[in-house]
Write a structure and sequence with these properties.
By secondary structure, the protein is an alpha/beta fold. The chain is built from 18 helices and 14 strands. It folds into three domains: 138 residues, D-Maltodextrin-Binding Protein, domain 2, CATH 3.40.190.10; 96 residues, D-Maltodextrin-Binding Protein, domain 2, CATH 3.40.190.10; 206 residues, MetI-like fold.
Length: 482
């Protein structure tokens, strides 16, 4: 029994080690990891072909050419991106980030490159005409944005409450359906959204004008910041920057559709959306299945190990199993994901790839649930079975392997199937740390075309199809085993 446990622990250690270890690659030119919020058009968004475009994206591309460096984009929500920079997980952030005194305490900013202002938008049917009409009402803002800061700043003066969202599209829809009465957003972003079909109207003039800036962690990545400033100066002098801004905003009219190459036509059917985004949807689905398969296999190994510890004669082993299961079943999965991806690097200074952090999250969270029902399955086998085996002279370990475990495994097969499906759905939570799985793919598509209902319907159907197929497969396996 002891040898078997040691072998199992070694297997778990080897599997996690393979995932965590990331070979260092030698590059001829410096390569930086830069995060961006690709739900912030016209500054950053993802096209039908999966490419990242927008003012910030085109600017960064031109700067990297002139300053001879390469970069890897890491899309995630703005708030998560800010934390990733602070944790040292990424080298910089370009996401229409307003330069504020508070952010200057933790970030170093490059040369300011665009000045915006905050506007308030309401439903076209709304009676609200200005800030003075907000008393006693609730407004919407995007977490971590300048709009959110401005809304909080004036909330007491005008007597309203603020609720927060991680992306602009969800915020717009919340106002459109009447859950909140107004949204605070950067002027060009709000104007672009309305031009794309968002059913809102702007009722205030731009306020609290702030410059956007490229940010890095304070006192870190000075070379990257130097390259950005030098490259930005070059593209301003040769007129490239003005061409980029005009490409997306037009001559002050926010006419993004003037650029035919980047045009996103209004979709009339879901089938049109599927055809336009089939590559992105397929990639997102593949990433979801990868996370599910790797996560459930390693979580099963870890869970079985915890389950075995939970039925061992040793009080120490049982206590250890119970404690681990209690901790990781009690932690919300999103909190655990952020702790692993952002919290641990803050303490250790060692980067953890998003996919690796996601897999570890699944192992710890799903493994705890598996450990609980594995232990329960073994305990549900009649005690007389183990006693009879021991009375025949079998040692404890062999009696468990030959008599108790085979019966316990049959009892927990339905729970394994259920946990497999739960793991597939739980991968959607990992989009918060920048893994572009199926849910995050939907978010990126919506940021481009703002057709939330149709896109989420597509994503829901894909999840249901995959879960149905997995259920059929699992049921077939269950019947074969029994």
């Amino acid at each position: 029994m002891r040898k078997w446990l040691i072998s199992l622990m070694a297997l778990v250690g080897l599997a996690v080690g393979i995932i965590v270890s990331v070979p260092a690659a030698h590059a001829a030119t410096p390569n930086y990891t830069i995060t961006t919020d690709t739900t912030f058009p016209p500054f950053e968004f993802q096209t039908d072909g999966g490419k990242y475009r927008g003012i910030d994206m085109d600017m960064l591309k031109e700067i990297s050419k002139r300053e001879n460096f390469t970069y890897t984009l890491k899309p995630m929500s703005f708030n998560a991106g800010v934390q990733a920079v602070q944790a040292g997980q990424v080298d910089g952030i370009v996401a229409g980030m307003s330069i504020t005194d508070e952010r200057k305490s933790t970030f170093d900013f490059g040369t300011p490159y665009y000045k915006s202002g905050i506007v308030m938008a309401v439903s076209p049917k709304s009676d609200i005409k200005g800030l003075s009409d907000l008393k006693g009402k609730t407004v919407a803002a995007k977490t971590g944005s300048a709009g959110a800061d401005y809304a909080r700043e004036i909330s007491k003066k005008y007597g309203f409450k603020v609720t927060f969202f991680n992306d602009s599209n969800t915020m717009y829809n919340d106002v459109a359906i009447g859950n909140t009465v107004a949204a605070f957003e950067d002027q060009p972003v709000m104007a672009y959204a309305i031009k794309q079909g968002t059913n809102l109207k702007i009722v205030t003039k731009p306020a609290k004008g702030n410059w956007y800036g490229f940010g890095v962690k304070k006192a870190a990545n000075a070379e990257l910041l130097k390259k950005f400033n030098a490259g930005y100066d070059k593209i301003v002098k040769d007129g490239t920057y003005d061409k980029i801004v005009k490409r997306y905003l037009g001559d002050g009219g926010y006419n993004y559709k003037k650029n035919a190459a980047d045009q996103t036509a209004d979709k009339t059917t879901i089938w049109d959306l599927v055809k336009e985004n089939q590559s992105a949807l397929l990639n997102g689905l593949v990433k979801t299945l990868e996370l599910t398969m790797v996560g459930i296999i390693l979580a099963a190994i870890w869970g079985i190990f915890l389950g075995i510890l939970g039925v061992m004669p040793s009080k120490l082993a049982r206590g250890l199993s119970t404690t681990i299961i209690y901790i990781f079943r009690g932690l919300p999965m999103l909190v655990l994901a952020f702790f692993i991806y952002i919290g641990i690097p803050n303490l250790t200074g060692q980067k953890i790839p998003a996919f690796t952090a996601g897999v570890i999250t699944l192992i710890l969270n799903e493994g705890a649930y598996i450990g609980a029902f594995v232990s329960g399955g073994f305990k549900s086998v009649a005690p007389g079975q183990l006693e009879a085996a021991r009375s025949l002279g079998l040692p404890y370990g062999k009696a468990m392997r030959k008599v108790v475990m085979p019966q316990g495994v049959r009892l927990i097969i339905p729970s394994f199937i259920n946990q497999f499906i739960i793991t597939l759905k739980d991968t959607s939570i990992l989009s918060a740390i920048g893994i572009i799985e199926l849910t995050q793919t939907g978010t990126l598509i919506i940021a481009r075309n703002l057709q939330g209902f149709r896109v989420w319907l597509m994503i829901a159907v894909l999840y249901l199809i995959v879960i149905t197929l997995l259920t059929w497969l699992s049921n077939w396996v269950e019947k074969r085993i029994k």
